[in-house]
Amino acid sequence: MTYDIAAIRSHFPALAAGIAHFDGPGGTQTPEPVIRAIADALARPLSNRGQVTLGERNAEALVTGARRAMADLLGASPSGIVFGRSATQLTYDVARTLAKTWSPGDEVVVTRLDHDANIRPWVQSGATVRWAEFDPKTGELTVDAIRAVLSERTRLVAVTAASNLIGTRPDIPAIAWAAHEVGALVHVDGVHHTAHALVDVEALGADFFVCSPYKFLGPHHGVLAARPELLETLRPDKLLPSTDAVPERFELGTLPYEFLAGTTAAVDFLAERLDMEATGTRRERLAAGYAALEAHERLLRAQIDEGLAALDGVTVHSRAADRTPTVLLTFENHSTADAYGFLAERGVQAPAGSFYAIEASRHLGLGDTGGLRVGLAPYNDSPDVDRLLTGLTDFLKR
Q1: pLDDT class for 1, splitting at 50, 70, 90?
Q2: pTM of the model
Q3: In the structure, what pLDDT confidence band is assigned to residue 240 with cuts at 50, 70 and 90?
Q4: Kind and range of the H or E element at 223?
Q5: Neighbour tally for 102: CB within 10 Å
Q6: Residue 312: is it exposed, middle or buried by C-beta count within 10 angstroms (0-12/13-18/19+)?
Q7: Contact, 356 vs 115, CB < 8 A?
Q8: Helices H, strands E: what count in the chain?
Q9: Is the Cβ–Cβ distance between 296 and 3 less than 8 Å?
Q10: CB 144 within 8 A of CB 98
């Protein structure tokens, strides 16, 4: 297992600006192979999908290739990969579709830990809402917290695989098992999780799993993975002439073919560049690449944790035993918005806010303001961390 950070960084044109990016949880920078794939898709003949003209065949190949790439990334079936404008849009689509099958008194479970994109669609679905709480002292969301709000009327449990605010990774397989015991479906927000760990939707027990390629080096759109046989049972609203075949049944309008080309290139980058010695199928190379990435991020996270521990007046709200390399900070007698601006002036990008995890921010006692979020991406290196810690030290001395 090798992780050549210098070689990896060389593929990101944006890094030439000299910024140390700790804003990966909000969206990563884009490697040159992804940029080139998008441009190449637009440079060739392209039209609506089909098999007659070259443009039709090109479009069909881009869609088919992206489904296979995302299936390899998520451990899913290509026939269960649905593309949409965003993970939020896809979650709303699933919520509206499922809600049509529910009766008055049916219940959904949502958690305080989640991004609002995996809360509000279910709150607004018309079902009775049950809230699962996480421990604000530890950041942990336990399976017992989920079990406490399950009942025979539970139709769905919506839960994050990793908090985009504080990084907590709940035990999704155990939560899914508990939900399935009462006959409920499980909708997993994997947007933050997919950037840091290899996903296996079957092993997770997720009936629906959503993610966003722009969080793992790709372009801006959303992806949903589900079992094709489950999708066959659902009837979303759709246009009369549009196909009723799965997964196209859930894709409204023309797909962004060039972005799908970029998504395939992003998956290939993860498979080929994170561990240059990896061999085997794309899925096997992805597994090796993610293992190398996790080892690299563990080292950088330890460097961050050690540096923060030496600073006075800093509160770290990311405390779960199992979490992504994502740290939420607040400061004694200092505004996190001021810290964000101070760091930005010094070429360190670490934004402040609640990042749409409004329920989690409030549950932590941080209101709607949240904190300063420091998140790692595959291109971060030790000098980046040094710049971050130096910047925070200087800020706290003001």
Answers
A1: low
A2: 0.98
A3: very high
A4: strand 222-226
A5: 17
A6: exposed
A7: yes
A8: 14, 13
A9: yes
A10: no
